[in-house]
Please model this.
Amino acid sequence: MSRILIIEDELPMRTALKDCLEGEGYRVLTAADGAAGLKRAVEDKPDLVLLDIMMPRLDGYAVCAELRRLANPVPVLMLTAKGQIEDRVKGLDVGADDYLVKPFSTDELFARVRALLRRSQKQAKTLAILELGDTRIDFVQQQAWRKKKPLHLTAKELAMLRLLLETPNEPVSRERFLDVVWGYTSFPTTRTVDAHVASLRAKIEVNPDEPRWIKTVHGVGYRLEISGI
Model:
């Protein structure tokens, strides 16, 4: 059964969520603050994270942003008392997959959990392996091969490819790369993105000067061109 991590600082809410989800057959992990929750999310690799926003040590926005910076694809459902549009937008912008405002019914919670798990399972099949001509990238093993020979890709190069693969044939802005791959605590420039793309092209493209896979979208960023997706 799917494992769900609840990151919630209020004990009554954390206990209630745990009880009702376990009653539905899910295996439930818990954390009482953002820092502990981030550690559990990285180490225990849950299938879904239920994430409160207002928490000590690290708030939910920071936890979600850091997960995405680490290229962690776990679906995140934000649970919060905040209902303003700008708060919902901020949550989605830092990488949350869905947003549920307290108070909510358990039926709606269960429906959203099921929907996110279905979507995640479908994406996992798509994102596990990427084949670009004679290059094969395994995102689970974090390894790559070209013409069946090992190909070294850095952690940031793999994270950039995963981000491109999440929206194939659609542009990803340089700013989005910086937010997701480098994170808010770093201060790289858009030239950093261009340099890493040039390195990626040198490794996976037959002719890096005329790339087949990673296309430049002028004034925006880059897109991964894959037919049939």
In short: The chain has two domains: 3-126, 128-224. The two ends are 29 Å apart (CA to CA). The mean pLDDT is 88. The longest helix spans residues 106-127.
